[in-house]
Design goal:
This protein has 15 helices and 28 strands. It has 686 residues and is an alpha/beta fold. The longest helix is centred in the middle third of the chain and has 18 residues. It is globular. The protein binds calcium ion.
Amino acid sequence: MFSMTDFCIGATMACAMGLGGFSTYAAQTGTPVADPDARYARFPLYSGGDLGVTINGDKAYFRLWSPEASAVKLRIYKNGRGGEPVATVEMEKSQGGTWAASLAPVPYGKFYTFQVQYNGQWLDETPGVWAKAVGVNGQRGAIIDFAATNPEGWAEDHGPELEHINDAVIYEMHHRDFSIHPNSGIANKGKFLAMTEDGTVTPLGDKTGIDHLKELGVTHVHILPSYDYNSVDEANLPANTYNWGYDPQNYNAPEGSYSTNPSSPSTRVREMKEMVKALHDAGIGVVMDVVYNHTAQNDDSNFSLTAPGYYYRHNADGSYSDASGCGNETASDRQQMRDFIINSVKYWAKEYHIDGFRFDLMAIHDTETMTQVAKALKEINPSIFIYGEGWTAGNSPLPVERRALKENVSKMEGIAVFSDDIRDAVKGHYSDASDRGFATGKPGLEETVKIGIVASTAHPQVDYSKGNNSKFPYAASPEMIINYVSCHDDLTLTDKLAKSMPGSTEDARQRVARLAQTIVFTSQGTPFMFAGEEVFRDKKGVHNSYNSPDSINAIDWNLKHKNASQFNYYKELIALRKAHPAFRMTSAGDIAKNLRFDKVSSPNLISYSLLNHANGDEWKEIKVVFNGSDASQAVNIPKGEWLVVAADGELNHTGLVDGSGSPRYTKGGKLEVAPTSALILAKTDK
Ligand code: CA
């Protein structure tokens, strides 16, 4: 998320309680001290796993962390919104700054809120920060039987096993973009259940939905925010609104608008699990986009309504600091917030079998928190991986050296960051639509592309002082780098090329897209692509489409027919990467030893070899040449028997074939590399 959200309207319920304010507890806050961190550091902490509601036998137990409350009320409702409470319970002060209550029998199907008295005032009602099921628009927590939400076979369900993150091929997808278009042939458009539909096709007969993903060959789907977010009115789905979802409301419950019935708390839980199960059954993992760095609301957020001030960072004048660009930033450096993040991702991993997490604006969090996140998740499932945006959207009170920045990635364990180095070098700067990159003929970016090729690790032939973005090898391992040329943010690759190549043909732009993605998918590190690029989808030139209508964001799947050769190229490119571990080396030392750049001096030309059966590859040597110029360029290839894998905008992972169907070979020597294309050759001898 790199974009501003503009929805700060109150979603909290109007509080109609007229009898508040009569507490038997003295106010505990005392006189505010000058340093809020010193005050917060004295708060009692609670790390138990029973915050929110837990059920044991015939009793429901409620627990809320609210160390400065002078009283807390629990209310039980019949419905997810509206109506009077059917019960009101005074909660009791308990250990670690918590308040507790229990009810018997378990009020299954009912809803609950907490209300905190703070500084003599009754705050608005809130489901708390640990609601795992919620009613419509997330205003009340729900008491449901989670075991009853599990799809058939859930106990045996698991995602793909993954030894190294760079064995993954990540596909970033929004639920609506992917299925909402009439041409998707999918019944549950814009819903979690879209992924559970087999056999869907376009009117022209091309596969869509989960069958499309299987055909493409990606290993992991990265779903844009799917926790309960604030902006879309779940009570008015026919309004057909769209949002990316970077406006968190309830972190531990699924978003209602992606379910078939947002008023039924168990439906959204079950349907999200069914989506995960269907993807797992297809051998595809699920990565969740998580946005713990800020909340949609400030004083009215669930954090603020339970422990005012504590969960956020502030400026010296007491105002919210805003490293997210969305009005506030959370404080992962405070223990209860750190625990919240760790316990929340653990919950998604265990309850929903999530296989990976993508942290939005990760540098708002501290490096220690992120290392602990990775450690906790790997204990649950060693195949889980974590990556994030190694930057902030504004300044933060958190010292730079503690931020989970891209440049600090080597201070963390088990965390990867997006490489904006390769992104901007290949296609041109993200924020300047007309700026070109290596693949669109702009000279001088060769060294930055090489930084991307070696996954920002130290390499004897790469001069980091010539890098456009980072000036030092910040990654200790290629497993710390996510390579990409576009994502949901900014212009799609299709739109970026249209804006930076005025007067060009679509064929020319598709050729650039193929070269750009070939650089990404053959580079060391982990490749990441934006959904629909394989069919050359666009967003009509809208770069910040976070709340644009479906007419902008939907993928028109008839493009798969129109751009069939583009789709086939992507499919072969992914197959090439998956078949050849040389593109997936796991240590900086291996890359330094086995990846050798050739001396070429022309602009927009890069040539290198992967040597020595790198990383156990069956191929002895792979020669990779990128020509980003719109003229052909000559390279000298050592004499030998080379299988031609890619040339002149075509690629086949088992080798190109000639007119008679025989494999194409070349003897090397001086070869012409066609304009805007990759040449990939392989020495297949043992
Ligand atoms: Ca919602």
